[in-house]
């Protein structure tokens, strides 16, 4: 295969992969708007109710659209994934945000790619490269520069909650990749299962801790509709669709786009200033996100023929015969692969 032919074959695949990454990235970008919507449109001090309204209506809607319920062992798997990705993640995330100062919850969450890299080694057999580890550290550093502010001592409960929320989402991401989907079931149904299971877990907790639902005005209803539809139903469908087609580490490296989006929305819509240090952090985190999507260049095939050796038979013109392309030899000589 010539270089021109190889490029012609791989170009559509590359475009398709870039489109997949871009669509998956819309999920954390959408999640980055949650803070602004919550503070500007929703009732104060109702994090569990907000998590419930995000998850359960979205899950039921997707179930109605897909018309597919779990079967057999997938009832248990859907419950586990729903608990890890939604039911436990939402409450722990809100608890850490309320108890930790100055964006520390987002900083702890930004180490998610490192969590996933470690879990993927154990559960998926994917060994992290040095580049993956360094990129994960760079992403956490960049997010820290964007959101971290010095404001008091760290609360142990909040810190544990932040670590637990990151571990919960990371484990859910890796298990979603490991278990895949049942035959004939698409990502829409899988997302509906998880959101419904997670919402059902949050419902009794919200009622026990926060009591009856609050009174809602038009602004709050509009905010909740946005969170349930675009911010949750569509975003989690894109997220789980991406997990099914990309590596778990690749998907998690898109996570830093969420705090970066929150900073941009705060600057553009809420009048929050951005310092030069924050801009530097945004550049570092975004660069780490892009670098996290790059795959090692394949080395199994060569498109240029090897240099003729002295043992090559000569042609009638006295020139050495062209060597057999390495692609053809690779099947016969495993050492050359």
UniProtKB/TrEMBL annotation:
Q: Where in the cell is it found?
A: Membrane
Please indicate which superkingdom the organism of origin belongs to: Bacteria
Q: Where is this region: Disordered?
A: 297-337
**This protein's name:** EamA family transporter
Organism lineage: Bacteria, Bacillati, Actinomycetota, Actinomycetes, Kitasatosporales
Q: Name one GO cellular component term.
A: membrane
The yes or no answer to whether the keyword Transmembrane is present is yes
Q: Keyword annotations for this protein?
A: Membrane, Transmembrane, Transmembrane helix
- Residue ranges spanning the membrane: these are 48-66, 78-98, 104-125, 132-151, 157-176, 188-209, 221-239, 251-270
Regarding protein family, the annotation reads: Belongs to the EamA transporter family.
Instruction: Specify the protein's topology with respect to the membrane.
Output: Multi-pass membrane protein
- EamA domain location is 21-147, 158-291
Note one Pfam family from the annotation. EamA
Q: Which InterPro entries match?
A: AA-Vitamin_Transporters, EamA_dom, EmrE-like
Q: Does the keyword Transmembrane apply?
A: yes
Where is it predominantly found? membrane
